[in-house]
Amino acid sequence: MSDPIIDQLNATGVAYEVVKCDPSLADTAEFCAAYGYELADSANTIIVVGKGDPKTFAACVVLADSRLDVNGVVRKKLGARKASFASGDQTVELTGMAIGGVTAAGLPADLPLWIDERVMSRDRVVLGGGSRDRKIVGPPALLAALPNAEVVEALAKVPDPSA
Predict the structure, then answer these.
(1) pLDDT in tens, 59-89
(2) Could you tell me whether strands 113-116 and 56-63 are parallel, antiparallel, or unpaired per DSSP bridges?
(3) Which of 25, 54, 117, 128 is the most exposed place for a label (fewest CB within 10 A)?
(4) DSSP 8-state code for residue 122
């Protein structure tokens, strides 16, 4: 049986690895602690929605230690007056992927994929695998090679630790 996520990753020509994991450890911090990956190498794929008629959606990839700038950069890129994180139901309906496993590959062909510029500075990134029982590990070039991918400056902000 064909796997659209793996098929799309293979089509990039960029080497990557599939890492199996216990579904109960799929959340970023738990996965990193259990499997020995650096939190700084983890990148989360987040679906956002522009509140308008019709609603507009995008997938955003940001490092786990940062916060997606939903009300600034994302809202402007969506061309919406208001933007927010998509609900769990919207995310599952749009991507066909389980929460905690959403990844940048295998997304709908018309969905923009915005990658925070900081993600591209990592030697490798740990991504969701499309389900809670696997992760994808590879260089950031893997993300940039996906359809509709665009590296976006300041898509996410690093929280001030003193705040």
Answers:
(1) 999 999 999 999 999 999 999 999 999 999 9
(2) parallel
(3) 54
(4) S
- Strands (DSSP E) contained in 92-145 are 113-116, 125-128, 134-138
Whether 15 shows a pLDDT value over 90: the answer reads yes
Which 3 state secondary structure label does DSSP give 143?
Answer: helix
71 Cβ contact list (under 8 Å, min separation 6): 83
Helices (H), 16-62: 28-35
For residue 1, what pLDDT is reported?
74
CATH architecture group of domain 4-154: Alpha-Beta Complex (3.90)
CB 163 within 8 A of CB 81: no
Segment holding 6, helix H or strand E: helix 4-12
Q: Which CA distances in Å does 80 have to 17, 48, 72, 83?
A: 37, 11, 10, 7
The answer for 132, left when phi > 0, alpha when psi is -120 to 50, beta otherwise, is alpha
17-45 pLDDT, tens digit each: 999 999 999 999 999 999 999 999 999 99
Question: Which residues have C-beta within 8 Å of that of residue 36, sequence separation ≥ 6?
Answer: none
- Report d(CA 104, CA 8) in Å as an integer: 10
